[in-house]
Amino acid sequence: MEQKDSDGSAVAPRPGAAAPVDLNLLRTFLAVHRSGSFTAAAHLVGLSQPTVTTQMRALERALGRELFERLPRGVAPAPFADELAARIGTPLDDLAAVTGQGGFHEAGPVEPVHLAGPAELLCVRALPALAPLVADGIRLRVTTGLTDPLLDELRSGRHDLLISTHRPRGRALTAVPMTDEEFVLVAAPVWAERIGGADGSAADMLAALHGVPLISYAEDLPIARRYWRHVFGKRLGSHAAVTVPDLRGVLTAAVAGAGWTVLPRYLCLDELASGALVLLHDPEDPPINTGYLVQRPGSAGNPHVARVRDHLLQAARTW
Q1: Residues 235, 145, 151, 225: what is their CA dihedral angle, to the nearest 10 degrees?
Q2: In angstroms, how far is CA 97 from the centroid of its own chain?
Q3: For the packed helices 49-63 and 23-35, what is the interaxial angle rounded to 10 degrees?
Q4: Which of 100, 208, 210, 282 could form a disulfide with 198 if both were Cys (CB 3.0 to 4.6 A apart)?
Q5: DSSP 3-state assignment of 198?
Q6: In 217-267, where does DSSP find H-type helix?
Q7: Are strands 75-77 and 68-70 parallel, antiparallel or unpaired?
């Protein structure tokens, strides 16, 4: 906008003075930086992809800097873009929270909280913990799946919160340690009696388990292989007899006597207590995996996201 003096005459800009940058350009920039894609950012800010591209070119001209490297799939931020996002992210999020973008001035019902994560942890731990909030009026939309695809969806704006099985890379997402999963080697009593002679070494344990079917979450035995590597320092050479892409199904098959498996302890606490499953090995240093609660920056405009996040973190202290 042209500046004018008190008498209405135009005033030339001061030499070297930078023109103010349109906040809309900065909001779009932040969406691109966080999602890693012009297309995903367009969805987040409610614009067309060509408009996002045009805005980013305009912002680059205004700043005199290249902000993103165009890749075959998405974009990669330049170092200056990372610095800019770190400087403007929190102020723009705070501004959005009080100007009608999901904040307390907005009329009508608050949007649902979109929560994602592993099916087992969500169903066994998270959803029971969130029941009081649902009864209090908070709406949830829950998506289950593998961590890496869900992280991509979180960056693109599909989810607000994600329970992740590992800490995500980069600075675009906020990750807080949430809970530790301890893995245990178990089988039904009928198999435990047969395996009982193992002295704890990898070779003897494998020998004892020879001929006993292995039940796994996936064909490449991710949990069982990790257990063997951590506890015995050896590579597990077994093959799965049964694969079930849901640890609750693995648990059910093990209780029914289908074979041995490795499970998170939280998932089979009741079965171990009742004797439906037996611990085959009890190492001093069991393998542990840390789960993280990951939030997409910008989702704080919905006040219910913060309530769900804080409630989950508090509940996880007792898990």
Answers
A1: -10
A2: 23
A3: 110
A4: 208
A5: coil
A6: 222-232, 247-255
A7: antiparallel
Helix (H, G, I), strand (E, B) or coil at 204: helix
Three-state secondary structure call for residue 14: coil
Element (H, E) at 116: strand 113-117
Q: In whole angstroms, what is the distance from residue 228 CA to residue 165 CA? A: 19
DSSP state of 292: E
Within 8 A by CB and 6+ apart from 241, the residues are 213, 214, 215, 258, 259
230: tokens are: 């951590």
Let me know the angle formed at the C-alpha of 282 by 241 and 265, rounded to the nearest 5 degrees: 65
Contact 67, 272 (CB under 8 A): no
Contact between 133 and 311 (Cβ < 8 Å): yes
**Would you call 81 exposed, middle or buried from its count of C-beta atoms within 10 A (0-12, 13-18, 19+)?**
buried
Tokens standing for residue 164: 């992740």
Mean local confidence (pLDDT), 27-34: 87
Q: State how far the Cα of 180 lies from the Cα of 265, in Å rounded to an integer.
A: 10
> Is pTM, for the whole model, over 0.85?
no
Q: How many CA atoms lie within 13 A of 71 on its CB side?
A: 12
At residue 57's C-alpha, the angle toward residues 52 and 63, to 5°, is 125
Mean local confidence (pLDDT), 111-123 = 94
| Measured CA angle at 156 (ends 151, 162), to 5 deg | 35
Tell me, what's the pLDDT at 107? 43
